[in-house]
Amino acid sequence: MSSNALRRFYSLSVSVATAANMVGTGIIFVLVAILNADVVARGAFHDPIRGVVEMVIFSLALIVFMQLPDVVRSNRLTRSDGMLLLLFETRPRAARMLTRLIDLIAGIFMALIAWTMWPEFVESFESCHFFIPPEFGPEPTGVFLADMSAAFQRCEYAGTPGIFTAPLWPIKLAICFSVSLCTIIFFLKALIGSWGANLFQTGDHPA
Hints:
By secondary structure, this protein is mostly helical. It has one domain (3-202). The chain contains seven helices and two strands. It has helices at residues 3-45, 52-73, 82-90, 92-126, 144-154, 169-192, 194-202, and strands spanning 157-160, 164-167. It has a two-stranded antiparallel ribbon. Strand 1 and strand 2 form a beta hairpin. Helix 4 (92-126) packs antiparallel against helix 6. The protein is globular.
């Protein structure tokens, strides 16, 4: 792959990671608004919003995985790099090769997570029977909104029935998307080096 093609592919990955990070940030704002509304409802009206705890649990999973690719892209993923920093001072070439190896191993682990999660997402999505008649329960009526509402009620869900429930497949889809993008970013960093990836973002060529 040429340097220009590699740069464009990395830039595209960065753009997608940044957009996903913005979605995660938007979910945080919505969650803060819900929590504030719940505090007001509890204190002023003695009528708390039902399902806030479940909403927080559901939202946290989305926030973490939507923001994870940008964390990987910006080298802010938590790790112990004391040895690498010392190695960069004495043997920078060896440190760079070791960094590439670490990124390669991380990419392999992310790929394994994506490979494991994809069948779970498919199974969870198919439990709704959006496009095929359900094995049990009423047949589709032909009315789109009614059929979609019935399908969402059939979905594998998380939460407390009667208080707040939400289908699980969006979370599993977010996990698959996140770890797949992390896999791509890690493999690109292993290919061009983390320092090279940073230079590619600024439009310079790595040395």
